Amino acid sequence: MRTVLSRRGRVVLAAVAATLATAAGGLTVAGAADASSPSPERPVVATGNGAVSGLAVDGTYAFRGLPYAAAPTGNLRWRAPQAAPSWQGVRDASSYAPACPQAPGISPPGGFSEDCLYLNVSTPALQSAVKRPVLVWIHGGGLTADSGSNYDGTKLAKAGAVVVTINYRLGALGFLAHPAFASGPDGAAGNYGLMDQQAALRWVQQNIGRFGGDPRNVTIAGESAGGLSVLAHVTSRSSKGLFQRAIVQSGAFALEQESLAQAKAFGKDFAVKVGCADQSAECLRQVPVQTLVDNVSTATALIPGAVDGAVLKEPIGTALAAGRFNRVPILNGSNHDEEALFTLGGRVVSRGYNVAYTSPVTAENYEANIAAALRISPVQAAAIAAEYPLAAYSSPDKAFGTLIGDATFACGAAQVNKWTAARYVPTYGYEFNDDTAPFLFAPAGTLSVATHGSELWYLFDLPNAPFPAPLNAEQTALADAMRAAWVKFAATGNPSTHSTYWPSSGLRGKVVSLELPAPRISADFAARHHCATFAQNLDKVK
Fold first, then answer.
1. Burial tier of 379 (Cβ tally within 10 Å: 0-12, 13-18, 19+)
2. What is the SS3 string spanning 2-71?
């Protein structure tokens, strides 16, 4: 099965869609600064652009706000990222840089600015005889929100990886395609956010060895839209060689990208909305950032990027199904009830869309809601509804949300596993099943299920989560096991550890169920999520 994204659809978030980000504002990162002399508390590293002074953090070292590309402002707005300028002296790298402009929500440290192409490094040691595996984290947020500064990599660093979290351009600034930006009438345009991610990976190749990491052993990882970005790089020819492994968390929900012609047509409509009826690049590059943010958040969708001919030569699902992808080991999974987060707001994520539905769901509108959300015929909707009888669920809304989550996230993940395993790529599947996991974006007790983003607590510290909650002893043990598996996969391409064996998912579809009191192997993932039914009844079946 492959999923479809319309240009009117909106790819959804990393668990932070409705919550992360504030209005764009200006905050200038400190440039070259005279830091104190090197010390255990303020280590200094010489990067290719200049020296930086970081921090000692809980037995590790952190370097924050490192520029990996020039500020994409002025004439560089809607252009491929350019080289970051160098500096003299020692640059203070103890504070996070601004996040990229986005809609109102929770403010990460450092504020917001169009000058936002920075990354952060957490490392267990700077000097080591053996270089450590590198894990580059691509945040989610629907490609419209979130920031690398919302993910503290200290615990993963203590588990043995050098962790890099990045910012990249979001929304219209990151993914608007318009004819005026292209080098010719049929030239590439758009996907600037994906180009930023590639620029960050090139920075890693050039610099991470100085932070104790191995540039020949890089894993890209991401959740939700970040996981979708990972799949984009897995299928992108221009990303080949920039990484050796890939981790996809809840990212297989939108595998069909729109054409460049569709994206450019949308770009022309967008230009009119923001006051550039002349369709000129000069006008668009002068539009205030807040106007761009407001029109993306209220009017349209730009993601998950278009088949631009540069970063993406074809849709992600098409490339995976045909075996045209970078052959790297893949760790890929989803959470038990992905849609529970989204149905709180009367919307669902369906095959790449953020779809409103008739709420509350009732026996009378159940099948009509299914047909509308999945864009299928009434006959197909009836066949799927029969697999999810209302009597089996606590409410019609619960049945509907479970169904959509299975169709979009779970069965998307199962399909990606089959496609990649069929090409003899080591592929490891998981399902996060700790239904006691803290819910990040509402008070305790709002949800008691492993939903979209629930696993993030178990890998990172989330210093800016609106409702932080400590893990109990059992959850902490599961978190330790997950971080060990993620780091082992980054190091070797196989997540098996002394405590947990991970079978290759292969064509039989085995996954590791990440649950309490301990992970276990599950062989019925596709059956539990009714993937055969969706393959038979959804359009665009591969």
1. exposed
2. CCCCCCCCCCCCCCCCCCECCCCCCCCCCCECCCCCCCCCCCEEECCCCEEECEEECCEEEEEEEECCCC
Give the max Cα distance, the chain: 72
Closest to 87 in 3D by CA, of 119, 37, 118, 48: 48
In a domain, residue 182? The reply is yes
Interior CA angle at 460 toward 103 and 421, to 5°? 95
Residue 155 tokens, joined: 């615990």
> Whose CA is closest to 100, among 247, 296, 328, 377?
296
* Helix, strand, or coil (residue 213): strand
Single pTM value for the model? 0.91
- Rounded to an integer, what distance in angstroms lies between the CA atom of residue 240 and that of residue 320? 15
CATH classification at residue 206: 3.40.50.1820
Return the closest-CA partner of residue 267 out of 486, 53, 78.
Answer: 78
Q: pLDDT tens for residues 79-136?
A: 999 999 999 999 999 999 999 999 877 667 778 999 999 999 999 999 878 899 999 9
Task: Decide which of 290, 322, 354 is a domain's last residue.
Answer: 322
Helix (H) / strand (E) containing 136: strand 132-138
Domain extent for 412: 331-450+513-537
Q: Which parts of 200-322 are beta strand (E)?
A: 213-223, 245-249, 258-259, 306-307
Q: Tell me which residues are annotated as active site.
A: 224, 338, 452
In terms of Cβ atoms closer than 10 Å to its own Cβ (0-12, 13-18, 19+), residue 109 is middle
Degrees to nearest 5, angle at CA 81 with 79 and 86: 135
Segment holding 293, helix H or strand E: helix 289-299
Q: Answer whether residue 250 is part of any domain.
A: yes
Residue 283 near residue 275 (C-beta atoms within 8 A): yes
471-505: pLDDT as tens digits: 999 999 999 999 999 999 999 999 999 999 999 98
What is the residue type of 6? S
Tokens of 279: 């369709």
**Does residue 336 share a domain with residue 277?**
no
Tell me how far apart the alpha carbons of residues 372 and 243 are, in angstroms, rounded to a whole number. 39
CA 23/CA 174 separation, integer angstroms: 16
